[in-house]
Specification:
alpha/beta, Metallo-beta-lactamase, Chain A, seven-stranded mixed sheet, globular, 8 helices, single chain, 14 strands
Amino acid sequence: MRQNTAVLRIGPYELHAVPCGDFALDGGAMFGVVPKPLWERTNPADESNRISLGMRLLLIKGPDRTFLVDTGLGDKWGEKQNSIYRLENDALPDEALRHAGHNPATVTDVILTHLHFDHGGGSTRSDGTPVFEQARYHLQRSQFEWARDPAPKDRASFRPLDFMPLFEQDRLTLHDGRTDLADGIELLVVDGHTQGQQLVKLTDDTNTLLYAADLVPTKTHLRTPYVMAYDNEPLKTIAEKREWIGHAADDDWIVFFEHDAHTAACRVRRGKKDFEAGEEIAF
């Protein structure tokens, strides 16, 4: 993994996009009812109809605390899963941080947007040990409860070994709704993709960044009807996207894409028909 030397600052925080591997998912599942000739223009599919996706974490370095948003797929995978998801360059998040030139021992807080395996899989090792043993892990209580008893639609996306050791070892802090986690860092709650997904919003007098997680997993998903078939409540996702990407477009926010294979972040604007990507931000 190549070290990215660009830095974005918001308030007292220094922000770094951290690559944590690549994988692939079915393009039809990623774009729901949108026809393949439309989404394949920006996301070409392989012979198995899979599109390339990244796993991009966000490191937030502050004067007193260092936050990491999400932990990637982790390494608790066998040959069958590797074949299905076309895992490449995958690493535990501490390894990804070291590869990017950061010290994982400085991480004091891990923010988990939700517990699907591609977002929380790197939270623990195969023996259940937390990867960041001294850090607090932050999650919405409603997402934790959902993950322990999920609906059949997303049951396969949750693996108890990824998160139950955090709870059992008292490393997990559960939040109830919208939360000010630290000065300039706010957790926002959306429920369309899965119950209690939390987005991360950083703001100061000049810039605002929204870590969009699976509300807007790639730049292509900025368009309102581009909603994943994985979402439990797609109409709710559309309403949440209109709300939060609407704020981003109207107030010149930066939107961070966790899964876009090429673009880490960009500003957003309102086009003639829908939201559009604006200036790309590299850091």
